[in-house]
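Section 5.1 Outputs to date
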Amino acid sequence: MCGSRGLFRRWFSMVERCPRCGFRFEREAGHWVGSLGLNTVISFGALLVTIVTGVALTAPDVAVGPVTAVGVAVAVVLPVLIFPLTRTLWAAVDIMMRPLDDDDRAHLNDGRAH
């Protein structure tokens, strides 16, 4: 909502509310499923690009071992690396798709989280 920093306590632990405006990130049960989906789509897209590029660069004798190793590394590391990005991006997408209602506005404050 306000562009504040400090939304994560640790890499996988997001604060419940924005430290600046008090916006509650999880607006309903199951809210973060969209974040998981976004992370999955981005990760699978990167994996596809990795495999296609690896095959194209090593054709006609495809280097299956190296292409597989790089693919596995992308599939394991990328979802972890982009986790905070997809969490915050999903919160923004959710606000665009479902603007704040009166209940959400009631939880906003003058800059201090509850």
